[in-house]
TrEMBL record:
Residue intervals of the PH domain: 22-139
UniProt organism field: Oncorhynchus tshawytscha
The protein's name: Rho GTPase-activating protein 12-like
Organism superkingdom: Eukaryota
Residue numbers of the full-length protein present here: 458 to 601 of 867
Amino acid sequence: DPSSLKPPTSPSEKCGVLNVTKITEHGKKVRKNWTSSWTVLRGSLLLFTKSQGGGTSWVSSVNLLLYSTLELSSFGGIQSKPEFTVDLRGGSIEWASKDKSSKKHVIELKTRQGTELLIQSENDSFVNDWYRALTDTISTHAWE
Ligand code: I3S
């Protein structure tokens, strides 16, 4: 399970495999579509890359390995073209209430642009780390 590996973290760089779905786009509700995503937090940006074949795909595994052995801070990983990117500046996060999802450990992220995402993993300490990193990022960039 690649999500149980611990890549290095710096305040501005974090990565890993997360389950993600949009629930609102530009203020409009959209249909959920949970996908496993190679996720990179870089500065105030959160980048999602589709990780085909789920969290155990070789691409995610190779990315995790590269991150954890080389500690490359500006490297986006292989096959790293982001599927979509959200800017955390001016956003907010909280733990999703039960009516938002039946899944465990779900983070609800709202952006200033009116996009709402759910971010989830079965690994609770992993999700807790992401919750903290996202909260820190939002407060670090609060005045930008
Ligand atoms: O909030 P919802 O609508 O109950 O979310 C579930 C559905 O989106 C479902 O897809 P379809 O209704 O398109 O078949 C998904 O498969 C579920 O994963 C969604 O719920 P959870 O509770 O897993 O977020």
